[in-house]
Amino acid sequence: MSLLSEILTYNEQFVREKEYESFVTTKFPDKRLVILTCMDTRLLELLPKSMNMKNGDVKVVRNAGAMIAHPFGSIMRSLLVAVYELQADEVLIIGHYDCGMGAVNSHDMIDKMKDRGIDEDILTTLQYSGIDVHDWLKGFDDVKDSVSYSVEMVRQHPLMDKKIPVHGLVIDPGTGQLDLIKDGYKEIELLKK
């Protein structure tokens, strides 16, 4: 049985037995918070439990490294939708130690792409089109710096409400301990002065 078949078989039972009832909530986050975090498998359950969050409390946006790579990309759009359409009043950017994006080597990844059949001509075409694939695939050297950078991108975004606190944290994927990198409340207070 394929993985997809297993998922669909389980889902039929899940719906039939109404297991979804314990997850019923609205589309609006009860704690009026949106979190950008990493897609790392260790964080799926650990992150919300370490923060005392349950289904319905927050909006969660995930990507590789909890990074905002472009000010007008899909991640920033999702954060803006959460604030303006879904009643989020605060933003948390949460990176994590031992993140795979801290070890990404674009040259190695491109070699893996070629091994799986991506033709060199495609990479050349992208380069001539002005797309630096190496730059696009790069990770970060320090998770704290990466989180700080993303926090500032959100805070300084021309379409973000300047009264929205944007916090930066780093979580330990083994213990769930959160380290505060940027306190959005302090930044808001500085703006008032």
Automatic annotation (TrEMBL):
Any single Pfam family the record assigns to this protein: Pro_CA
Keyword entries, A-Z: Metal-binding, Zinc
Gene3D superfamilies on file: Carbonic anhydrase (3.40.1050.10)
Cofactors: Zn(2+)
Broad enzyme group: lyase
Positions bound to Zn(2+): C38, D40, H96, C99
Keyword Zinc: yes
GO molecular function annotations of the record: carbonate dehydratase activity; zinc ion binding
Cited CDD domains: beta_CA_cladeD (cd03379)
Reaction(s) the record says it catalyses: hydrogencarbonate + H(+) = CO2 + H2O
Annotated EC: 4.2.1.1
Superkingdom of origin organism: Bacteria
Cofactor note: Binds 1 zinc ion per subunit.
Coiled-coil zones: none
Stored PANTHER family: CARBON DISULFIDE HYDROLASE (PTHR43175:SF3), CARBONIC ANHYDRASE (PTHR43175)
Family recorded in the similarity comment: Belongs to the beta-class carbonic anhydrase family.
Protein name per Swiss-Prot or TrEMBL: carbonic anhydrase
